[in-house]
Amino acid sequence: MGAEVVVEGLTKSFGKQAIWRDVTLTLPPGEVSVLLGPSGTGKSVFLKSMIGLLKPERGKCVINGVDICSCSERKLYEIRKLFGVLFQDGALFGSMNLYDNVAFPLREHTKRSESEIKRIVLEKMEMVGLLGAESKLPGEISGGMRKRAGLARALVLDPEIILCDEPDSGLDPVRTAYLSQLLIDLNAQIDATILIVTHNINVARTVPDNLGMLFRRELVMFGPREVLLTSDEPAVEQFLNGRRIGPIGMSEEKDTATMAAEEAARAAGHHDGSPEEDVRGVVPQMQPSPGLPVRKGDRRRKDRVMRILHNLPAPAQQGIVESLSDSDRQRYGLQRQPAPVGRPDDTRPLGPGAQRPNHALSQESVANLPRSAWQPPPESSPQAPQPRPGDG
Amino acid sequence: MTSTRTQAGFPGVGMLRETGRLFALGLDVVRGFFQRPFQVREFIQQCWFIASVTIMPTALVAVPFGAVIALQLGSLVTQFGAESFMGAASVLAVIQQAAPLVTALLVAGAGGSAICADIGARTIREEIDAMEVLGVSAVQRLVVPRVLASMLVAVLLNGLVSVVGVLGGYFFNVVLQGGTPGAYLASFNALAQLPDLWISELKALIFGFIAGVVAAYRGLNPPPGPKGVGEAVNQSVVITFLLLFFVNFVLTTIYLTIVPAKGS
Ligand SMILES: Nc1ncnc2c1ncn2[C@@H]1O[C@H](COP(=O)(O)OP(=O)(O)O)[C@@H](O)[C@H]1O
Ligand SMILES: [Mg+2]
Fold it and tell me: Within an 8 Å CB–CB cutoff, is residue A55 touching chain B?
């Protein structure tokens, strides 16, 4: 199972320019998370801080009990072996061809024979659809290919944590869909913890288990995808719908004058070309390709989310309950009820039937959950206690 | 909070911090000399590369350098009536001062700028970050072989400049100024001694180290933005020149103090 990443109160600035402050979030083990944010909000800086390439002023980033921000150089190199990182432009070594690039981590960190290395490299190259391009130099291929090659290199050591910086930028929608599917399939196969940083709405809606957004030097929210996807937060709503009306401007922050002028123009009937449609709301999540095992992270996440369900906003609750399959409903002791319309603005409290999960998921009922395929993790973490189906 | 600490400070604190980091990198590199595995291939490639960009200009600079010294000394020495020391003076000047400095200028100007541009481009493309994340130290992998290569090439170039410079001096003195070959060669031994050659090579070694470390440091920390690498290369050459002339002064002073001049 992938490692858990706990980020606490992380604050980073360059000189006088504050990038973000007090970012606190937990990447649950083996789950897929997406961090959204307008360009220039420091998403890449956040990823680099998580792997110790940049030193934040305050805060912690704990993985397997080691704080990346304060541990020794030696420990840092050790813990980095758990990571597979895809940088924004692939970050391939310009002097090596694609084969040597992908083989690099294997040659550095393992004592495998060249034939074994060849097998692994070709397998990963096939995975990202680059078979046949092994002898090309990074300078000779398109940005999308560089990105996929970078992903192949990141995967070659079977990482426990995969960080992807904008895997979709520079890719067409079809390739983006393939890449998203690849990440989900990977998660199903090796149960790695995945964090994707992006500003692609489609990826954000369909791929992750957990969704967060950075804006105005803060983490606006982070939690189960349903929460952000149904949020009423103006910045979130604007971002998800790709509108100009809202708090996000061309520069990092809009001043109130611009905001008022835009609002007035809209009231006067000026159509600014922003999509009218509200794309918020919970859409079905991307599933692993047929033939692959079910995602263990998905199971764990459902248990976790159902346990905190009563703390979530009503629209999110509704989205979660509706997305449950029949067997899930049985498992969590929910009865099928006439499905209410899942509009995000529908803040109607849940009906009496839907209230059941609150008490149905008291400590005992969680413990009584039917045995699922996954085994409880060997080490429990105090920050995010996992439901333990095996305990009962 | 740390941010207040980084803002606060006196004029020049930024320069001190940079100097500190430069020294830290220098220490890391020295430590890296003894760490295994040693990147043999990278080292050989870099030696070849640095040599290929420096040998030709060095040879071309060395000939006129030797000539200028010969011409200058030639007329001076004749006025004193000390023609018999012509060879000795020219050898001393070339080996002790001219050779290491010409070497330094070329290793910094041609070799160092190439190293800085190479590493700077890798930094901008995030290759260095990627390498660090893959658990491979960029200092060990990239910087150490380059610094070592720059040192080795500096030592070899220094030998080259010495030979070419002395030959150039000989040519100008004997052929153009009508000096006697016998006297020129005979006086070699009069003032020059073997330690002169050692200090010359030692200087070249140190200059090569400084040029390599400064180039790598600027390459690893380029100013942000697309112009960053260009600026970094420019700064690395200027900083190296300043450092080299200063270090040369210090080394010369120490040498002249501890090694007595021949015949005194
Ligand atoms: N090494 C650096 N030094 C100074 N400022 C930086 C550095 N790296 C990033 N920044 C600044 O941090 C901000 C966020 O950058 P980035 O993380 O790349 O944004 P994005 O969310 O688009 O990935 C930018 O304003 C950028 O200027
Ligand atoms: Mg970015």
Answer: no
Long-range CB contact pairs, A124-133, < 8 A, 24+: A124/A152, A124/A153, A124/A155, A124/A156, A125/A98, A125/A99, A125/A149, A125/A152, A127/A152, A127/A155, A127/A182, A128/A152, A128/A182, A129/A178, A130/A98, A133/A98
Residue A353 Cα to ligand 2 midpoint, Å, equals 45
A38 lines ligand 1 (CB under 6 A): no
Helix%, strand%, coil% for chain B, nearest 5: 85, 0, 15
CA distance A309 to A42: 31
- Residue A115 near residue A94 (C-beta atoms within 8 A): no
Across the strands, what pairs with A163?
A85, A195
Q: What is the bridge-based pairing of β-strands A210-215 and A161-165?
A: unpaired
Q: Residue A116 is which amino acid?
A: E
Cα of A165 from ligand 2 centre, angstroms: 7
Sequence letter at residue A282: V
> No. of H helices and E strands in chain A?
15, 10
Half-sphere exposure of B37 (CA within 13 A, CB side): 8
Q: Which residues contact A37 (CB under 8 A, 6 or more apart)?
A: A43, A197, A199, A213, A214, A215
- On the 0-12 / 13-18 / 19+ scale of CB atoms within 10 A, A203 is buried
Contact A321, A354 (CB under 8 A): yes
Asked if B150 and B211 count as a contact pair (C-beta separation under 8 A), the reply is yes
Whether ligand 1 lies within 6 angstroms of the CB of A55 is answered as: no
Q: How far apart are CA A194 and CA A187, in angstroms?
A: 8
Q: Is A39 in the pocket of ligand 1 (CB under 6 A)?
A: yes
Q: Which of A11, A19, A166 to mutate to test the pocket of ligand 1 (most atoms within 8 A of CB)?
A: A19
The CA-based angle B126-A102-A4, given to 5 degrees, is 70
**Domains of chain A from N-terminus onward:** 5-82+159-225 (3.40.50.300), 96-152 (no CATH), 296-346+357-368 (no CATH)
- pTM score of the predicted model: 0.79
Residue B134's alpha-carbon distances to A86, A108, A156, in angstroms, are 11, 9, 11
Q: Chain A residues with CB inside 8 Å of B126's CB? A: 87-89, 91
ipTM over 0.85: no
Nearest CA in chain A to B7: A15
**Can you give the pLDDT of all 392 residues of chain A as single tens digits?**
788 899 998 999 888 888 898 999 999 998 999 999 888 888 999 999 999 899 899 898 999 888 988 888 888 888 888 899 999 888 899 889 999 999 999 998 888 899 999 999 999 998 888 888 889 999 888 888 888 899 999 999 889 999 999 888 878 888 888 889 989 988 998 889 999 998 888 888 888 999 998 888 888 889 888 888 888 888 887 888 777 777 777 765 667 777 777 777 777 777 766 666 777 777 888 888 888 888 888 888 888 888 888 788 888 888 888 888 778 887 777 765 544 444 444 444 444 444 333 433 444 333 333 433 434 444 444 444 444 444 43
Q: Is the peptide bond before B37 cis (omega within 30 degrees of 0)?
A: yes
Contact A214, A183 (CB under 8 A): no
Q: What are phi and psi of B262, to 5 degrees?
A: -65, 135
Per-residue tokens: B101: 């400095």
